[in-house]
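ASSEMBLY PREDICTION REQUEST
Request ID: AP-0331
Submitted by: J.K., bench scientist
Number of chains: two
Total residues: 470
Priority: normal
Notes: Please return the full assembly, not individual chains.
Input sequences:
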Amino acid sequence: MSAGFSDQLIAVLPRLRRFARGLTGTASEADDLVQSACERALSRMEQFQEGTRFDSWMFRIVQTIWIDQLRARKVRKEDGEVDGERLGSDEAVRRVESRIALVEVRRAVSRLPVEQRTALLLVTVEGMSYKEAAEIAKVPVGTIMSRLARARVALQAQLDAGGGLRRSTDDAETG
Amino acid sequence: MQKPGDELLVAYLDGELDETRRAEIEAWLEHDGVARDHIGRLSESAALLRAAFDEILREEVPERLIDAARGTGAGSVHEAEILPFRPQRRIGGFAAPRHWWIAIPVAASFFGLMIGGGLGYFGLGNTPTGTDDKQVATLSASTNSWLDNVAGYHKLFVSAAQGENSFADIPAAGDGGEVIQKISQRTAQPGVRVPNLKPWGLIFQGARVVIIEGRPAAQLVYTADNQAVGSAIGPLTVVIASSKRPDLAPTFDHRQDVNVLYWRRKGHAYAIVGQAEPGYMWNLVNDIAYQLDAI
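STATUS: Completed
Returned structure:
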């Protein structure tokens, strides 16, 4: 196995974890997803084309595995449905969460449909261009554009409705 | 220019518009205070979004992921095979759930275990005994570690039993020696012992054969002998598996909302799994290990 390949993989792990956390909503599931992606990448390393972006290739693998898992589980959530376990049901714990606003933001993201969530994470969080996100998601750029707009508006609406935006702003200001 | 929609406004914020379009948007924003406010809030929520997820970048990357990236990990997404609960076996006068074929996928999905292999069942023709015409549900563990597997099996057992007490492939009824013999045969682990936990208020109900990391393992099932305190200490499962890993002192972990105390000794891996207080479980370790000759 190429040490250079593994080094690249290790270097991108924090970002893969962040992406996977946004997709799955839980740390353990996210790390399982990343681990599966690492193993798939190593088993298919010959398919990676030198000169192309390694991180994009890995994001695509993570996204593909996640979609496969969703299909396998036959998850059919309605838009906006909230998974209680993922989001936490212990109000007392959540109240004492020192950074509740940021937690609320992640919760709001988890409520988005998976296609919108993916676009949001790739572009807004990972800083990828629409074209790069479209290649990872295997959809046209226009689709990314519309998914992203719906996601951003929905996210903002959720934060406004929950008061999260105001608290988040305060949080950010007080650092 | 028409009032720009959300797609254009978001694309403007993301720097995805060409010079002409950007100028048009900026011109519009000059005289539309509502649009300015809207785009300001979109921008603010994007900053919050990044802040919320940037925290994850500062977390320490788990060792298992680094191992996986190096190709030195134990391997994830093990195909964990679970023998279905068999309704014809009854233990202790308690009725087994009638619809085990429902209980399995429900419990599996509830606890994060995912039905794999196209929901197919296949015969366990290559089991150590090869005698029973069983079917095996192939489940892909949502988590990949041995500990998560034993925790998942415990929860699967508790869920499928639905509080009606346990049921198992090898019930405890009859001669104890026969039980031990069957466990040893089916798990290919000669000399497996069944710890006597009566002094701890736990009654052995039987054993199940589970497949962990590709190898058969024994899951010994205990329930509390006192219903009044039963929910506090039982049910409890003890897993005995073969292992090629080095010896390990008893170690506590908490997986999938259950407590797991595990150790390795002389080619075997052991785990005590339950929702009892950790202190109670620690007290059990020495006794169980002594009885299993594991320490």
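REVIEWER COMMENTS: Chain B has a mean pLDDT of 68.
SIGN-OFF: pending second reviewer
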